[in-house]
Amino acid sequence: MSAMTVSALLESGTPSLTKIYLDQISKAAQPFATIEQIGAPLPIELGDQGQFPWYWATPENYCAERTYNWVDRIVQRGDGSSIRLAGAAFSNEYLNLIKDVFWKIGSRDVEKMNKARVKSEKDIQAIVSQYEGIFGTITSEEMAKAAVKTKIDYIVQYQVSQVWASQPPLELTEDNIWSLAERLGKVPASARTLVPAIQLYLSSSGALDLERDTNNKRSQLMKLISNTERPSPENGGMTVADAQKNLSARVQYQLPEIGRIEGSLNNANQSASVMLKASAESTETVNVSVSGEAGISIPVAELFSLDAEGQVHYNAFQMNTSSSNFEINMTFHGLTVYPIPALEYRAGAGTGKGWFDPTLLQEAVTNGESDVSGYEFTHPPQRDLTKEGNFGRLTNLVISELPTVEISFATGSASQSIQHFDEHASVTFSIFGIPLGSSEESYSWTKIENHSSGEGFTIKLEPPKVTGSTTASGQLAYVLGATAEYPAATS
Questions:
Q1: pTM
Q2: Lower CB density within 10 Å: C or N end of the chain?
Q3: For residue 135, is it within any domain?
């Protein structure tokens, strides 16, 4: 096969070396992931995100925006078994979805409620009559604004639960109904005589369970939307600081303790390796295999690049006096699982905190347009909500220190252009166009070591070391793979 560029390989449908490389580094991390019991990590295409800024805590213990934006990315299916980070923020897309959900009462339950209401029609008429005697006639406009269809629902589901409640929305649980007067701190003095009648109606009506469930589900949805749209420390939000130290409230990801991650990244006993072998085919092309996979021919310039001191750019053949076969051995020290749990909203837990509730979306997907009581979507979702779709989020990353790199040439000797490099000179290294490190974190050129046979030589590059300094928010970890969930998927 003639040499093809990486982009041409992608367009042709041929498995690209980039994909093979990502597959192999995720496989190299699988034994460690199995020990950590997170499931098999998938290859991850990072796009323009770059490697992971793991050090999330600012000196003031806020979350660094750079890290937050990285973990809050939509995940979608990539090529083959891989996943891909998209540009959209997951929390924003999640908010758009839950704002398009509503609680619907199925026709059978409507019939049950109506029959029960007939039995207590006198009580209902008395409550409505007394209410309208105090506040005036309940208009259709008022009912539409409150999203209800009857006057009694306007009084119970809107006024009692939303307007009069001390801490709205008030869930009409059995306990709350029996202590209703204590829960309605905002009820007008003129309406206090209504409370016992409403309490009796709710506790004795045959429609109590349905009424209460409908009210509670709608209240929970409103609370969930509020927590997600307007996060704060009171409802479980977290404070995020940008590079200029401007602060904003965001929904919370419960990121791991810094000391634990730092200690794990510095554990050299937790490691994995990937070997690339390149055979020179011409003065411009090489055949490359990754960890024993079938080789693919590409231009040598697209395999890796090394920039010295930000000035001179080299590929493999420019570093050697001959077009030699060579190997690239990459060792990933400090394998670490980096969990990314979202703060879940648990209805009835008593805290009122949290924002993430996948069960609500799953119920809306399952119900579809069925005539049942439950959550439904107002409009068909624009995103593909299946496990093969484009509405996923990261749950775990498998990360490491940036890899140690050894480039070993079988023959030839180091070209004069690289012989002058000082030990520990600053260099940047990219493989298949994927940068290792950043402008803030450069590799160190450790040494050129001639082989004892007299033929060939090895170049060693060392990554920047992980530290716990207060300026560490720019530190990057290498992402070998990830696990993800598709929270609205039902199977």
A1: 0.76
A2: C
A3: no
